[in-house]
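Case study 2.
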Amino acid sequence: MSNDPYKDQIRRAFDRAAPSYDSAAHVQAVAAQHLLAFTHTQPLPAHVHRALDAGCGTGQSLPALSATFPQAQCIALDFSSAMLAHAAHAAGAQHLVCADIERLPLIDASIDFYWSSLALQWCSPEAALRETIRVLSPGGVARIATLGPRTLHELRTAFSAVDDGEHVIDFTPAERWLEASRAVGLNVQFYSQKTLFDFASNLHTLLANIKAIGAHTVGNQPRRFLGQKGWQTLQSAYEAFRRPDGMLPASYDLILLALEKPA
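Prediction:
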C-alpha cells in the first residue's frame, strides 16, 4: 500500500480485474498493436540490451517485445501484483518487477527501450516522464500509448443526464504529454492520436467490459448508487449514441508518443 489513496484505489481495481482482463481487454490489445506498428515509424537504437514494459498488465505485449528485441533482457513491471502473476506466464517474460511507474526501482541509464501501453494515463505526466528519461540510456527511446480526455465521452455525456458527479476520469490531453516530455528533456520524435472503440449490444455489457479491465475507477469521489431511476436515465441518455448497426460504442482516445533521450 502507498500513501496515495487514488493509486491504491487503482491498484485494487486492477488486482480484482486480473482474472478477467485478457478476455475483456479487446481495445487494449488493439492499442498495443497500434503501438507496435508505431514503434517502427521512427529509428530505434542500434543495440537494445534492456527493454522495459512499464505497466505490463497481464503481459500481452511481452511476446511482441521479445520478438522485436530477441537479444534484449525484457523487464516486465506493474504495480498490481495480481496482474504481474499473470504476466509471469506470458511468452517473453524474463524479469518481473512489482513497482510504481512514477518510482522505478531501476538504476539511471539502464534501459535502452521503454514501452508502455495504456498504463501512463493513471500517472502524472511529469512524474512518469522524469522517471522515463532517468532510466533511459543516452540515445534510448520510449514508445508510449496512453489515453486522452475524449475516452468514454459517451458515458460522461450520458451520466450528465443523471447528476453532476464525476463518473468518468478526465484523462490528460496530448498537448500536456508533449509539453511534459520536452520539459524533462526528452525529444519528441513523433506523436499520433486516433480513436478506438469497444462495442456491445447493451449498456450493461458495455459497462461490464469496462469493469472487467479495471478501468471503472473514477478518481477520488466516492462511488454513488444510481438506483433504478438513475439507471433508467443513464440507459436512455446513452441510446443517443447507438449506431445504425444496433451497437453501443465506447470510445478510447488513443495517444501515441515516440520519445528519445538525447545521446
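The first strand starts at residue 50 and ends at 54.
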